[in-house]
Write a structure and sequence with these properties.
Strand order of the largest sheet: 1-2
CATH architecture of the largest domain: Orthogonal Bundle
Distance between the termini: 53 Å
Shape: globular
Oligomer: single chain
CATH class of the largest domain: Mainly Alpha
CATH topology of the largest domain: MetI-like fold
Strand content: under 5%
Number of strands: 2
Largest sheet: 2 strands, antiparallel
Length: 395
């Protein structure tokens, strides 16, 4: 008997049915089963499922509280004897107990987990009471400063260790061991070294990112393929040209993905740092609202962190596509050069501002005006290049 199969999927199905083994080939076909639109619909459906589960858990954990008027004017011991005070206090408690037992009206409260609608209704309160935009920007700016110092130190320290075998042999094991350091246990040391101001929070965040990023930089240097190094060496490149044309692009293009992964960790550490003296920021607002039992506002602030983290992740994806287009496009499109120049101008000006203002604090104010000018100029270059790129990409 001759069997004609039209594709490998039908063949794998028959083999699985004859042998009794699971159809492992189907897992290969499932990898690219859904297109972009279907994935978006599935993501929306998953979001709806999560919200429904959240709503159900909130209702399960809710309690009914009687609506009565409690006597909030307690007797004072200053104007009566001790025995009379105890009698009056017992009388008030007895009346409250009777009112509680005879209550006919009840209200539902959510002491542990607020439903999604209450969390959404808390956002106007965040803007009115907690200065939503201001405190969010405080945490974002601290986060960016911590990122700058972590990336700067990781490259400054990691490249010599990764490039020179003697330094790699001396310090690579110690650098790897830093990842096991419990960072929350060293907050006291950072308070001792930097005080309780912004410098402590930024230093703590930078250190928290650095202990993970530094070993990654060293590893990325090891992963640079020898074929590229041999090629530029054959062409007569010097050591500096080899670092500039091979090591830097190769390491930084992969480092962008590692920085994306560390975004969530950075928000964890900045919230911990902001809990220490509570001088503004998302962490301080979460602590204050949790202290007074405003669970709906706490969850609203947590959603703010998730939203900001998601936007940061999308920004890193966009930066990766524009700064390292060779990872995504096989053709050189017009406009990408202007986009790269604009982004490097903005990133470089921010890094230079942070570096100089930390060394020369008196320069911070005049440098700030120059920073605004360069950032706006870089943004204009990015917009112009992006318009040219989109036209070239579509055509």
């Amino acid at each position: 008997m001759r069997i004609n199969f039209s594709n490998s999927r039908r063949l794998s199905t028959l083999v699985a049915s004859l042998t009794g083994k699971p159809n492992m080939a189907s897992l290969l076909h499932l990898r690219d089963r859904y297109n972009g639109r279907q994935q978006l619909l599935l993501a929306l459906a998953g979001l709806v499922i999560v919200v429904l589960i959240w709503w159900g858990l909130a209702e399960m954990l809710s309690i009914e509280r009687p609506v009565i008027d409690y006597n909030t004017h307690l007797p004072s011991m200053l104007d009566q004897e001790k025995d009379d005070f105890a009698i009056n206090l017992d009388s008030i408690l007895q009346v409250d107990s009777i009112n509680l037992a005879n209550a006919t009206e009840f209200e539902k409260i959510y002491p542990l987990l607020p439903p999604p609608n209450e969390v959404l209704q808390a956002f106007p309160l965040l803007q009115r009471d907690d200065q939503l935009a201001k405190n969010t920007w405080i945490s974002v700016w601290r986060n960016l400063q911590g990122y700058f110092w972590a990336v700067f130190l990781a490259i400054f320290i990691g490249f010599p260790i990764g490039l020179l075998p003697i330094l790699r042999g001396l310090f690579s094991k110690q650098v790897d061991a830093l990842r096991y350091l419990p960072l929350t246990a060293v907050t006291g040391l950072f308070i001792l070294w930097f005080g309780v101001g912004d410098s402590m929070k930024i230093a703590f965040l930078a250190f928290g990112i650095l202990v993970y990023l530094l070993p990654v930089v060293i590893q990325r240097i090891k992963e640079v393929e020898d074929v590229y190094l041999t090629t530029v060496f054959t062409l007569g490149a010097t050591n500096w040209q080899m670092i500039k044309s091979v090591y830097f692009p190769a390491v930084l293009s992969k480092l962008m993905d590692d920085i994306r992964v560390l975004t969530a960790i950075s928000w964890t550490y900045i919230i911990i740092a902001e809990l220490l003296n509570r001088e503004g920021g998302v962490g301080a607002m979460i602590w204050l609202n949790g202290k007074y039992g405003k669970v709906d506002k706490v969850f609203a602030w947590l959603l703010v962190i998730i939203l900001v983290g998601f936007l940061q992740d999308r920004l890193f994806v966009y930066l990766d596509k524009r700064l390292f287009p060779h990872k995504y496009y096989k053709t050189v499109f017009t406009g990408l050069k202007e986009v790269r120049y604009g982004f490097w101008m903005m990133l470089g000006s921010v890094m230079l501002f942070l570096l100089l203002s930390s060394i020369f604090p008196n320069w911070a104010q005049p440098l700030q005006s120059l920073l605004y000018i360069t950032v706006i100029t870089g943004l204009i270059a990015v917009i112009y290049g992006e318009i040219r790129f989109q036209r070239s990409y579509i055509s």
